[in-house]
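Team,

Forwarding the record for the chain on the shared tracking sheet. I've put the sequence and predicted structure together so nobody has to dig through attachments.
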Amino acid sequence: MRRTFLRVALASALAALCSHSAMGAEITRMVVAFPAGGPADALARSIAKQLEVELKRTVIIDNRPGANGAIAVSAVTKGPTDGSVFFLTSAGAIVINPALYKNLSYKPEKDLIPVSLVTTTPQVIVAPMNSKFGTAKDIVALSRSGKPVSLASSGIGSMPHMAIELFKASTGADFLHVAYKGAAPAITDTIGGQVDAFFGDASGLLTFITGKKLKPIAVTTGARLPYLPNVPTLEESGIKGVIAENWYGVMAPAGTSQKVIQELNSAIRKTLENKEVKASLTTMGMTPTPSSPSEFAARIRSDGDKWSRLITERGVKPE
């Protein structure tokens, strides 16, 4: 009986060991390449609580803004590979920066491993409430009449900037691109009429649109957005090929095991299936878009090719 007891105890111990998480830390850091208060930070805080439930460990948000994402990437790649640190990144740092900056201090395909896409958020063209623009065609027509039209973005190489370049390429119109250092000052100046219009992430503009501080003109998607059903797409406005969608995804440092990657992926998927999380993200103008690691990797390759071609063709240069 004693031998039987020992065999059972040993088998139980081995089973527990085999089923135990590959992630060895009690605290997990979610590194964000943006300051507190912005859309990326709001996304991180919206999913952190449920991630704690799914991972069964404390999740803290580590804001590392600056240097076009390089500071955040460095914090991740120099960290442990046991799942206790991961990168919540926007598209810019992964699929735009490598084509825009020749001496970028990191290489996403070598330094980071895709875990899962998290959310997507399209671009919206907005104008001051008293703007004479009613449609995107009005913006194009004014520019073609010889009058200068200023279009703001949140910065050189941002997704709004990419949308403006697509808009210019599609229409052949000449706009004055006004690159701000972040969305907040661009929104302020658009509300005040210092610029004619602004391309921005829906997630950062929704409250200003619903609060009647900015007039939505069009969206850069193939279909209308469920939370802005009365706003036409650029395609509906007769302007073709301007599809621009920002996204946020999770990446882990190179060297992280596949078991840890799968555990993180599973936790993210379950988090994004939570009803409260879904509602929170939808209210923010974000669409939960969980994926497998391979699906996310394919999206990175596809978007990287798209924006690299545009940057080359349009001769986009860093500041």
